[in-house]
Design a protein that fits this description.
446 residues; alpha/beta; 8-stranded parallel barrel; 3-stranded mixed β-sheet; 16 helices; 13 strands; binds 4-nitrophenyl beta-D-glucopyranoside
């Protein structure tokens, strides 16, 4: 049980998994090397008007070439866990067929480099970079793509299963649904609600099929989903706002949590979508058994609360970060963690993302003073500590992100890293928050 640490600080459980996270398209660059195929994010970011300044992930933080230096930076931080994602089009250029050995070798070298430095690898199988060839046959609107994902996952498990102890299936299905298919500001850039929830079902199906594929390999790896969860609060104390917040929570959280962990879609959301929706028509017998295949852990990503008004709209209560969608509310972290444990049982949890963008500049003396990130992390970690003290079985915490990187539609304008990247030179500079985080990890206490 965590207790008071030194100097009245907050001590974390022995062996707590201090970490940081990244994803392939956001950091790797090298989009045309070693047999990599195109992904929907290559297509999307190269389409004029889709990303800020026309930025693409073609170079990004050049991690594909600089991974050894990045591994040393992780070691210097004292990380215990590193969460990265595997680029599907590096493993299967067109999303099907025999795996590309050169692609697998990159992740083998990365995993080996982590083990050599005493850092535990955690790999996400899908962090949004769908092979373009699969988009051309319908993308996640096609049920077949869920089966293609299971085949890809199987190939990765067989090649890397001996050195990756923890797998995450699909990063944030909700963000794919919302940003990719409702609002359209992420790839594939659609605005089609009827398609969006069919996509949600197929993403959940893909998750379940990958869990089954891992079990079939007989390996010892653990696996779970990665959900971004938003606590949804009524904006005022009217019954109408409470009712609207409940349904909003259904779409944001229960759609994914209930199907994966309880084997049913929430009745209020199904009723709201209606029996004629493409999603309702796309659910087949046996799908929910597959989707709810037992998992070993659930990954939670927390960024912001949502305040829901009586008419089903949203409003703001707290200051935002540079990301206009993000209100800074550390207690939301406590609320979402304790809620998952209360409603879904004592399944082990990991926090796989938490962070914010700050207006960082590299000063003449070579330092980056991101004081805002230090206070954000300190306050959120205090909420994490409180949740652990109240019985949440949380095993690890990962800052988003290790490095400044390609922030999707926002390009390189937003800096989310513990480590500053000077893009013209690709020089890495640990920010003030990195030095602070190193001390937290070393003390195992706040
Ligand atoms: C996550 N929201 O996306 C992604 O997993 C990361 O790749 C990304 O860089 C990071 O968070 C920062 O944006 C999110 O609207 C996108 O609440 C949107 C939301 C949350 C997370």
């Amino acid at each position: 049980d965590p207790a008071e640490g030194p100097a009245g600080g907050l001590r974390f459980p022995t062996g707590f998994g201090w970490g940081a996270a990244t994803s392939a398209y956001q950091i790797e660059g090298a989009t045309k090397e070693d047999g990599r195929g195109e992904s929907i994010w290559d297509t999307f970011s190269r389409t004029p008007g889709r990303t800020r300044n026309g930025d693409t992930g073609d170079v990004a933080a050049d991690h594909y070439h600089r991974y050894a230096e990045d591994l040393d930076l992780m070691r210097d931080l004292g990380l215990r866990s590193y969460r990265f994602s595997i680029s599907w089009p590096r493993i299967q250029a067109d999303g099907t067929g025999a795996p590309n050995q050169r692609g697998l070798d990159f992740y083998r070298r990365l995993a080996d480099g982590l083990h050599e430095r005493g850092i535990s690898p955690m790999a996400t199988l899908f962090h949004w970079d769908l092979p373009q060839a699969l988009q051309d046959i319908g993308g996640w609107e096609s049920r077949d793509v869920a089966h293609r994902f299971a085949d890809y996952a199987d190939a990765v498990f067989r090649a890397l299963g001996d050195r990756i102890p923890v797998w995450l299936t699909i990063n944030e299905p909700k963000t794919v649904v919302q940003n990719g298919y409702l609002e359209g500001h992420h790839a594939p850039g659609r605005q089609d609600p009827d398609a969006a929830y069919l996509v949600a079902h197929h993403l959940q199906l893909a998750h379940g099929l990958a869990v089954r594929a891992l079990r079939a390999t007989g390996g010892t790896g653990r696996i779970g989903p990665a959900f971004n969860l938003h606590p949804c609060y009524p904006a005022d104390d009217t019954p109408a706002a409470a009712e609207a917040a409940r349904l909003y929570d259904g779409y944001e959280n229960r759609l994914y949590l209930d199907s994966a962990l309880k084997g049913s879609y929430p009745a209020d959301v199904l009723a709201d979508l209606g029996p004629g929706s493409r999603m309702a028509r796309g659910i087949r017998d046996g799908d929910l058994e597959l989707i709810s295949a037992p998992v070993d852990l659930v990954a939670v990503q927390y960024y912001t609360p949502i305040y829901v008004t009586a008419d089903g709209g949203t409003t703001r209560r707290w200051p935002t970060s540079e990301a206009q969608w993000q209100q800074i509310y550390p207690d939301g972290m406590y609320d979402i963690l304790t809620r998952v444990t209360r409603d879904y049982g004592p399944v082990p949890l990991t926090i796989t993302e938490n962070g914010l963008p700050t207006p960082d500049v590299l000063a003449d003396d070579g330092t980056v003073d991101d004081a805002g990130r230090v206070s954000f992390l300190r306050e959120h970690l205090a909420a994490v500590h409180r949740a652990i003290s109240d019985g949440v079985p949380l095993e690890s915490y990962h800052v988003w992100s290790l490095l400044d990187n390609f922030e999707w539609a926002e390009g390189y304008d937003q800096r989310w890293g513990l480590i500053y990247v000077d893009y013209p030179t690709q020089r890495r500079v640990p920010k003030r928050s990195a030095h602070w985080y190193r001390q937290v990890i070393a003390a195992n206490a706040l």
